[in-house]
Amino acid sequence: MHGGNIYGNEIEYDFSVNLNPLGPPKSVRDALAAALNHVEEYPDPEYRELRRGLANYWQLAEEQLVPGNGASELIPVIIRTLSPKSCMVTAPCYSGYETALNAAAPSCRIHRIPLRAEDDFTLPENICQEIARVKPNLLILTNPNNPNGKRISANRLREIVDACRTAGTVLLVDECFLALSGGDEDSLIHCIRSEALPAVVLRAFTKTFAIPGVRLGYAVCSAPTAERIRRELPEWNLSVFAQYTGTAAGGTSGYLAASVEVIAREREFLSEELEKLGFRVFPSDANYILFQSRDRELHQKLLDKGILIRDCRDYHGLTAGFYRTAVRTHRENTALLQCLRNIK
Question: Which residues form the Aminotransferase class I/classII large domain (predicted)?
């Protein structure tokens, strides 16, 4: 189950997908319009302008970047490239990892690290010991985690990187929501830039720039690993719309700063109001909030009112009554809260 399934339902407010509430910036909208002039041309199969822009932004070699048709294309391709015999994931976390593991590495043994409600679903203190004990070929982490939105501190991530290096484990970190949490300074990309790490970082334009319909993401890793991943991708996997959009998104620092500010303010407002309504709200650093309700049919009741939130009962480690809501604009957040008051 994923968010964003608005088709077949009459949806006025979609809180099930965690997009930037400010919507796409003007530069991205202009780039999409400009790309219309190139629809009679094949897209650049080597994504030269896009890779150059990303390399300049992160101060990386272009050879360390692998653009893809959204993170959802890259996840199974990375797994197929690495061919892990064992993989460690957290629970709960994004279900797409296990889906990709089952498809791209069907014989892979999956070890789940339980995240507990009493710890606000943060990483357990013994995670490095578990890495040393299990010695998985691959460890997948999300920073911030989905569905609860807690970030991994830079110091903690450094400890995990060291544990993975000792255990011979490749670390895959999904940072698709990190920019909107204001945590880009803690990105593992900075470590990959300065030293050779057995790690892959996954990023996406989808959430940061509110363009899920464009489909654009990228992976960052060592140049040899990047070349192996690229060989698994189909030709022309990025449309001219995706490439123009990604190139234009490079000069949007003001937009991102404003986005982080709005999200932080609205996240605090929405969290406080949800708690006043009697929900158990878990701390978040991201543009989404996990909360728990005694009402196991809340998702359907909101859907009947034209509001879509994410029912999280299908996450490993969660049950009926756990829900995730995106942090949207103040007007939208207020509409959600008013509907919840009317239901209760």
Answer: 14-337
